[in-house]
Amino acid sequence: MLVVLADLLTLGVAVAISPLAIVTVTLMATAGKGRTNGTAFILGCYLFAVVFVGGLVVLGRASGTDDPDSGPHVAVDIVEIILGGALLVLAVIQWRRRGRHTTPAWMTRLDGLTIGKAFLVGVLISGPLSPKDLPLLVAAGGRISQAPLPVAEVVAVVLVFALIGVLAVAVPWLVSVLAPAQVEARLTGMRVWLIANHSVIMMVLFTILGVKLIASGVMDLAG
C-alpha cells in the first residue's frame, strides 16, 4: 500500500496545489466565513475526490485492470499518456495567458454563499470545472485500479490520496479557525500573490505532470 501511495504522491500534491481553490478558501476566510463556508468547501473538494476516484477504481478493477496482462490495464496506460499530452497543451495555454492578473468574476460573489452552495463550489472546483484536477484524478483512479491490493487497502489508498489533495487548501481554513483575528493580515498577501502568479504556477504544474504521466504510461507499457 505504501508503494502505491508513494507512486501517487506527486499526483496528490499536484491536486493540492490548486491556486483557485486556495484563493477561494482564502476569500471565504477573509470574509469571516472560514469556519462555516470554508469547512463546507473543503468537504466538497474531499468528498468529490473520494467518490470520483473510488468510482473509477471500482469500474477499473471490475474490468480487470489489476491484471498486468489484461486489455483494460493497457487501456489505462494509454489513457494516462493521452492525459499527459493534454496537460502539456494546457501548459502552453497557461504560458500564453501569463501576465493577466484579473480576478475571476465569480470570486466576487463568494461572500454571499450559503453553506450548501459553498459545498457545491468545492465539488465543482475540485474536478468538474478544473482543467488541472480532473485529469489528475482520472490518472490516480487508473493507477489505484492497477494496484494488486486487497479491497481494504484500496479504500485506504483512495481516502489518503483524497486527503493529500486538500492539504494545501486546508491551510487558510486552519488560519481562520485557529487565529480568526489575524486572518486578514496573514492571508491577504497570499491571495494577491496567487492571483497574480496563477498562470505561471499552473504552467509549471501542467508541464511537470504532463511529462510524468506520459513517462509513467510509456514505462508501464514497455515493462
From TrEMBL:
The chain crosses the membrane at residues 6-28, 40-62, 74-93, 114-131, 151-180, 192-215. Keywords: Membrane, Transmembrane, Transmembrane helix. It comes from the Bacteria. Pfam families: SfLAP (PF11139). InterPro entries: Gap/Sap. This is GAP family protein.
